[in-house]
Amino acid sequence: MIEVKGLAKRFRLPSHKGTPYQLHDPREHDGWFHAVRDVSFRCAPGEVLGLLGPNGAGKTTTLRLLSTALKPDAGSVMANGEDLLADPLAARQRIGFLSGTTGLYGRLTARENIEYFGRLHGMSPPYLKRRCDELFDLLHMHEFGNKRADQLSSGMKQKCAIARTVVHEPQIVILDEPTTGLDVMSSKILLDFIASYKALHIPLIFSTHHLHEVEKLCDRVCIINHGKTAFHGTTKQLRHLGGSADLYDAFISVINHGGAPCGPST
Ligand SMILES: Nc1ncnc2c1ncn2[C@@H]1O[C@H](COP(=O)(O)OP(=O)(O)OP(=O)(O)O)[C@@H](O)[C@H]1O
């Protein structure tokens, strides 16, 4: 079980003489931009949680905090009752994090990129080969496995980055906008891949702007607005918010008027 409580992160704003940096953003105070102010949610093993919110709401910052890429100013992330942020190096062994940038080595092939990360995680060559073959099957990567990364299309690169993220069989999977750049068929392959984590009883958290992905996959949803959790609950609870049973209407309603239920224990 992942339990996120009261996460907060601020960034120092560049000093601008005269006018304030962002006049209308309520998150700016005294030279700091409070990108994440109070984010809480939970995700049980076998659940898929969708992190939603308008552009700039704080989704990527939240995911970077969870993955230990950033240190929070406040709040906690507990994994099965243990403080995940207390030992970032150990946490990174347990987490698979797909960030917005693919970060592949252009001169290595798709397979070499994935193997390289597997070796960094201490995987033995036979285990790594088996795992790569398995991921190539699941993500339909055989066609371009031996192509150099700098010669791959953006969708192929994205698949490769996803395979690299999960090569070490992490206990927690965190994906920042994983379907970016994927065509319809590749999106379907990836959505099936995400759904397969339910059977593995591994919590999976992903950010998206696509409500049909939430509809199809998510047991639980957290909507962030202006750096705060505006809604946290099951997809069913979200769907029935406002009574229309439509996720699109419910999302708009949460952003415009706030929403309940909320809080990590919801
Ligand atoms: N390193 C940083 N320094 C200053 N401000 C930052 C930094 N990183 C993020 N921000 C600001 O924090 C806010 C939240 O950014 P974040 O990338 O988390 O949003 P998001 O919800 O992922 O947006 P999108 O849907 O557009 O990807 C934005 O206003 C962004 O400009």
TrEMBL record:
An example Gene Ontology molecular-function term: ATP binding
ABC transporter domain mapped to chain residues: 21-251
Keyword tags: ATP-binding, Cell membrane, Membrane, Nodulation, Nucleotide-binding, Transport
Keyword Membrane applies: yes
Gene3D superfamilies xref list: P-loop containing nucleotide triphosphate hydrolases
Family: Belongs to the ABC transporter superfamily.
Protein name: ATP-binding cassette domain-containing protein
Biological source species: Rugamonas fusca
